[in-house]
Every structure is written in structure tokens, then in C-alpha cells.
Amino acid sequence: MNPLTSFLSQITQIKPSEMKAALTAFFFIFVLMASYMIMKPVRDALPSNWGDVSLAQQWTLTFLVSIVAVSIYNVCASKISLRVLVPGVFVFFSISFTGLFLAYRSGVEVTLLGKIFYVWSSVFSLFHISVFWSFMSQLYTKAESKRIFGFINTGASAGAISGPLLVVLLAQKMSVANILLVTSGVLLLTLPLIKLLNTFFERDENAESDRQQLSPNPFSGFQELITHKRLLGIAAFIFMFTSISAFLYSTQKNVLAEFSEADRTYWLGVVELVTNSLTIVIGIFVTNRLSRKFGMPLTLSLIPFLVAILLLVLSMNPIALYVLALQVVRRSGNYAITRPAREILFTAVDKEARYKTKPIIDVAVYRGGDVFWIWIIALLGDGYFKLSIAQILCVGTAVAVLWGLVGIYIGRKHEADEAAELVESP
């Protein structure tokens, strides 16, 4: 056995025979996240030129475009095979960013184009990762996913670190439009990785399953969502997750208001670096052991309950340092533990749910949660109730507890179904 493979197998608990496929999946999500992070600074710089109303409008428009996007995707999934669908998504986004590049170069009105880019890149930021995990949940079994998904997900953090570094290297030499062209090119690097993964898993039912089309009903993904308790539970879990993101985003915005723009940029950059570095460490050494030893209910509820405790503590003294520290805990815990555990749940559903319902949950429900909670926070604060930051954080604490309870529910449901399958198997 290769010494490097043996070493990686020991620290990740991935079997040597699984290592090539796991590393390929690692680089797959690495490329996807890097492609997004290359243009994320461009996107995040745009709202500084808009007012609060304009930003709220962009968030609402992002939600509406997300619904249209997943509906069109569901129609496509009903008409073409999975072998074409998965790479086709990334080719489509690559072409779309090339189109935005051409629009910039052709002299289209910059403000309008910037708002189009903001909305479309926000849809892309969730869509491409959702399709990636749909693909992974099709390839791996439940048992394999508990050992491997945590490691694979560290590729996203590695890409999140590498993407901005590339931006720093290119920023002085390339225009915004040219960075979009780089993103388009990087996305196409996923195609040989998809082909390689299909080769690794070219076996029995997987190969045949990937060639089959899904149900011809373009609305089956929406129907599955509203008729299956498991999928509704996952959707509720995502919806609650977006609430905590909104509560902390709003608090962070308020406590950093007294800092200069340069200081804000510096400290938020530190948060990004620490978060992604911590995610890699936790993903390699903790995640797979946690889900296998303590089970899915604890794995899914650990971060929500921890965040609830820390939000309550933060409400007593909401200063910038504590807010940023909590952001690191929440985000690294989500990326390293909660997200992989959430994706394990989709190994137990059928193809319709994986490829049709999952993007609805990951994109439309997520963006809908963003819009819902940001308006709730606005009403709690300056909009109507005039609550203080501390009082709003107490509300967030209660929501975080609900988030954890939903995690326990869907975790128990997953393990109960797993146990039932073991009993039924000969």
C-alpha cells in the first residue's frame, strides 16, 4: 500500500480501496467552491453601492429567481439522464458566466448588470453545491457516507481558502469581467472529475441508475417535499439554520458599525481564514467519528444547541470580539459537522428526492428563509418592536433551540429507518 494512502486512511478512517474516489470527490468540491470564491469578493463589493431597500429587493429577487431556477432544473431532470444532468448543470453555469463576461465587455449598463450578477451568483452559490451532494448521495451508501462525507467536505473549505488567494493574485491584473471568465473556466474542470468518479463507481445498480431518467413529472420534486415527513423535516432544519445566519449577520453588522472599513475587512478576513482552517481539522479528525460513535441525532443537534447557549451568553455582552468568535464556531461547526450530517440523510431517500427535491430545499427554501428571517429581524428591531440587540439575540436563542430539536427529530427518523432496513434484510 502507498505510504500516503495508508497515512490518510489512518487519520480519516477511509478504507484504502475507497481513497481514490474520496480524493477525487474532495478535488471536485474544491474546484466548485474555488470557482464561487473567486467571484464572491466581486459580488460582496456590490451592495456598498446600494441602499437598504435596494439590498432587500435583491434578496427577495434572489428568492424568486431561485424558485424559477429549481423549477426549470426539475423539468430538465425529468427529461434527461443523470449522466447528462450533473455535468450539464456545471456547463450551463459556466456558459452563463461567460455571457455575463461578454455583457460587461459589450458596454451594458454597469449598475443593472451588477444587480443581475448579484442575484445570479447568489443562486449559483447554493445550486452547484446542492447538485454536487445529490451526486455524492447517489454514489455512496449510508455506511460509507458516515465515514467519507466529512473528509470530502473539507475540500470545500480548502477551495474557500484557495479561491480568494487567486483573486488577490489576479486582482491587480484583471478586471471584474475577466474574473468572471476565470470562474467560467474553473467550472469546466469539474467535467473530467465527474467522468473519473463515474468510472470508479461503474458497478451494478449505480451505473444503470445513473443512465436512467427520473420521473417525467416536472412537479414530482415539489410533491415529494410536501408529502414526506423526512423531507419536510430537512427543509425545516434548513429554514431554522437560515434564521441563525440572519440573527448573527444582523448583529455583526451592528457591532462592526463603529469600526473603519479597513478594520472590518481585516477582521472578517480573519474569521474566514480561521473558520475554513478549523473546518478542515474538524472534518478530518472529528466528523466521521462523531456520527458513527454518537449517532445522527446528536451530530445534527450538537451545533444548534451549542449556538443556542453561546447566543444566550452573547446577549449579556454583545461586543464585536464575541460576535466574531461565535461566527467562527457556528460556521466551522456547520461546515464540518452539520452540513456533512445533513447530506448523509439524502443517502436514505430515492432518486427523485436526491435530484429534484434536494435543490428545492437547498436553494429555494434556503433563500426563502433568508428573506423571511431578515424581515422578522427588521420588525423586531427598528421596523416595529424596537428591541435591543440583546433582546433580539434572546429570540435567536429560542429559534436555535427549535433548530436543535428538529435536528434530533430527523436524526432519529434516519436511524429508525436504518434499523428497520437491517431487520428486513436477510
From TrEMBL:
Sorted keywords for this record are: Membrane, Transmembrane, Transmembrane helix
Record Pfam families: MFS_1
List all membrane-crossing ranges. Answer: 21-39, 59-77, 84-104, 116-136, 148-170, 176-194, 231-250, 265-286, 298-325, 389-410
Superkingdom is: Bacteria
Q: Show the Gene3D superfamilies listed in the entry.
A: MFS general substrate transporter like domains
Question: What is a GO molecular function of this protein?
Answer: transmembrane transporter activity
Q: Mind telling me what this protein is named?
A: MFS transporter
Organism field: Oceaniferula flava
